[in-house]
Amino acid sequence: MGVKIRDRDATIKVKRTYYTPDGRELLLPMLNQGELVVCRLQLRSSKKVDNIAIVDMIPAGLEIENTRLNKASLNWVKGLAQARYMDARDDRAIYYTDMKANQVKEFAYLMRAVSQGTFLLPPVAAEAMYDPEIHSFHSGDTLFIYPPKAELPNHRLAPAKTVKPDDSTDSPCPKWVSPYSTWARLRAKIQD
Fold first, then answer.
1. What are phi and psi of 180, to 5 degrees?
2. Would you say 51 and 127 are in contact if contact means Cβ atoms under 8 Å apart?
3. CA distance 107 to 86
């Protein structure tokens, strides 16, 4: 199923987490067709870096939802940064931004599960556009989209109201725990 991308961070670090529209973290990449999901991207930088492009490839089976047309509320998502430019395409979301030293920025967008099946969840990447030595890559996983009324395991979602802000930053995002290791552990439990 392709080449596994090794996670790499050089000066900057990008992380991706998925949430339900009401703010519960999605621990397993399992959705029902028609379900909405919030993709939250967090970027950290240890020094001042200009002209960063964050590229989040959209897995087949999902489409970016136009929040101007959809009434789904993202009011719970606080403290999002304003990108210099955001480009939403069929296959990717791209954010362009600058970072100060020791800064954290977060961006979020809404997607909908449109097709049933098993899909590759591509890596997320961030790079300084004019300095290839400054980059961050984090590998993907597998996404499962089930029929609209299929019953999915309860443990695919974090318990309600357990998401706490990261105390080390002004970030409203919880401290990062890799969803890939969490998904692997939970998937192993399901298969047992």
1. -65, -45
2. no
3. 10
CA distances from 154 to 26, 70, 139, 140, 160 (A): 10, 26, 25, 22, 11
**Residue 118 and residue 86: Cα distance in Å, rounded?**
28
What CATH homologous superfamily does 8-150+163-191 map to? Alpha-macroglobulin, receptor-binding domain (2.60.40.690)
Give the C-alpha separation, 86 to 49, whole Å: 18
* pLDDT at residue number 6: 78
Say whether pLDDT at 192 is over 80. Answer: no
Name the phi and psi angles at 156, rounded to 5. Answer: -75, -20
Q: How far apart (Å, rounded) are the C-alpha atoms in residues 5 and 128?
A: 19
Q: Which two tokens stand for residue 134?
A: 């400054």
Helix (H) or strand (E) holding 144: strand 141-146
- Judged against a pLDDT cut of 90, whether residue 92 lies above it is answered with yes
